[in-house]
Specification:
The protein is α/β, with parallel strands linked by helices. It contains 12 helices and 13 strands. Helix 7 crosses helix 8 and helix 10 crosses helix 12. The two termini are 34 Å apart. The structure holds adenosine monophosphate. Adenosine monophosphate (AMP) binds next to strand 2 and helix 9.
Length: 298
């Protein structure tokens, strides 16, 4: 079944202890689409400027990603600059240039409206609501960030009422609910709407709170992390991708989706931006999935 994702397509400048990458391809929708396209057809909805090069378009198209909904607007593409600390779970945003994103209102082509799976990437919750007005999905996933929890909480609460799963960082759980305990925090989030909550804990793995209980998955242990940018969006792409491919999103499918998400995210961390994610195939994902099963079985 097909998936629609709405989110940023960007130029990222990133500095990590492993080096620096200037104005590489980035954006939440980019990472999500590249990961999810290994599982199911993807429609990408977003905006880029006149400076967005054809080679990036060609890369996305080479993965079969439908770019009918990728608007090209006058002006410059969204830019984000981030710097990681020695502990790569910690990063600072140095600069965000909204550029064409400032006046963006998502317009879903027919193919994108009809997709059974929808992922609302990390954009202003009022834009996420505009997407929900246009689409009629069977299953909706949501990402958000501290910025929107701080400045657009009312809109975010409207969105939360209408989604099936929220994928969120551990630190954001506390910001959203006031609960530092993740079990209690996830329970509070469920009261706001989502029946499923996935809490990402960076290199410490993630927790799935479904209707049937809790599932804990480790992160794939990597010897060298080059750049974790986009790992969260990649996780979401693998997670929703697997659900879109499954017969029904029951508890077994949700557990496997968490592992597929973790596997996809581990590849993203191995090189700058989406460089590693772009070169892998479904076979690479399946091989690491099998290693993951051995890693966590006892
Ligand atoms: P992640 O590492 O999973 O949090 O995702 C990082 C990606 O999100 C980068 O590629 C950025 O371009 C993008 N990003 C960062 N800040 C924003 C924002 N305020 N709105 C939309 N996308 C953003």
């Amino acid at each position: 079944m097909s998936i629609t994702v709405v989110g940023s397509v960007a130029f990222d400048t990133v500095e990590t202890p492993a080096g620096r990458n200037d104005e590489g391809l980035g954006g939440a929708a980019t990472f999500f689409s590249l990961a999810a396209s290994n599982f199911a057809p993807v429609n990408l909805v977003g905006v880029v400027g006149e400076d967005f090069p054809d080679r990036h378009v060609a890369l996305l198209e080479s993965k079969g990603i439908n770019l009918e909904g990728l608007e090209r607007a006058p002006g410059r593409t969204f830019r984000w600059t981030g710097k990681y600390h020695e502990n790569m779970n910690d990063r600072d945003t140095i600069e965000t240039q909204l550029n064409v994103f400032e006046h963006f209102h998502p317009k879903l082509p027919e193919s994108a409206k009809d997709a059974p799976f929808l992922f609302l990437g990390n954009i202003h919750p009022s834009l996420q609501l505009e997407v929900l007005e246009q689409a009629h999905p069977r299953f909706t996933g949501l990402d958000t960030m501290n910025l929107w929890i701080n400045i657009a909480l009312d809109d975010l609460k409207q969105v939360l009422k209408r989604v099936d799963v929220l994928i969120i960082n551990d630190s954001e759980v506390a910001l959203l609910t006031g609960e530092t305990n993740l079990v209690k925090g996830a329970r509070e989030i469920k009261k706001l709407g989502p029946r499923i909550v996935v809490v990402k804990k960076g290199e410490h793995g993630c927790l799935l709170f479904s209707e049937s209980g809790i599932f804990s998955a480790p992160a794939y242990p990597l010897e060298e992390v080059v750049d974790p940018t986009g790992a969260g969006d990649t996780f979401a792409g693998g997670f929703i991708g697997h659900l879109a491919k499954s017969e029904k999103p029951d508890d077994a499918a949700l557990r496997r989706a968490v592992v597929y998400g973790s596997v996809a995210a581990s590849f993203t961390c191995e090189k700058f931006g989406p460089d590693r994610l772009s070169e892998i195939t479904r076979a690479d994902i399946d091989k690491r999935f099998a290693e993951f099963q051995r890693l966590a079985s006892f």
